[in-house]
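pls read this protein.

:::
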Amino acid sequence: MQKIFIGLLFFFTLITNILAANKYPIILVHGFLGWGRNEISDTKYWGGSHDIEAYLRSKGYTVYTVSVGPISSNYDCAVEAFYQIKGGQLDYGKNHSEKFDLVQKPQGKYYQGLYPNWDSENPVHLMGYSFGGQTVRMLQHLLSTKINSGHQEKSLLLGNELRGWVKSITTMSAPLNGATIADIVNKFIPFTDSMFPIVDNISTDYYDLDLYQWDLNRKIEESFIGYLNRLASNSSWSTKNSIAFDATLNGAKNINDMISIDPSVYYFSYSTSCSKKDPTKGYHIPEESLSLPNYPLCYLMGRITINA
């Protein structure tokens, strides 16, 4: 965790130097199985035992952390991020909700807004780690696109072109072209089965998978394992509206084919590596510094070839 913190600290120091010419708010968006600031005890997604948001605030920056669905689709996460930042009743859109049989406006999902003044005169810097990198790209796409197909959308996000709301997009360790591990998991192991041990390891009474759009929120006094078993039997996993598809090579290609570059937005992307090439065998193996729980996934990624 210390090495991760040092890497993130270097990353944010570099970015804040680049963005020093303005003080627009920085929005931090987590990735797969991520969490909000108060969901897992004192462990922060952004910094672990340290606190990246607090560090940036100490340097004079305005920073907010959103908490989107940790296993939701790219589209759903982007919509959730918008309403958490701007405020208002969460609305996934009539067309999207009917297509994937979602609850369009989940009860209890009305936000006061982390930054209610957000508009073209008060833009933000979006920063996404891991799958959060795809989420911030999708959010920028939805902001600049008016949904015209099917029913006319009435929400602020989907029914209007909101250009100029984003000053920059920064991604770190993001699967912008997909993650081969997603294809490996989908091919050899059911996605929910592979996810259970990880989720159970980080679960707390406050950790929420935020699947209210599927009407799959955790019931009162329901055990976490019981909740996961109920989740696994849901047919929503077989659709293309989940991270199980979006994180694959084909899922990422669909996103890239749909999203265009906005000439008014600055883009930064930082890649990382936790493997090294084995000179005797020719494939990649985990670095010694990699945390033990990640060894199996890294090992599989280095050995198995996936054709998109």
About this structure: The mean pLDDT is 83. The chain has two domains: 2-272, 276-308. Residues 276-308 form one domain.
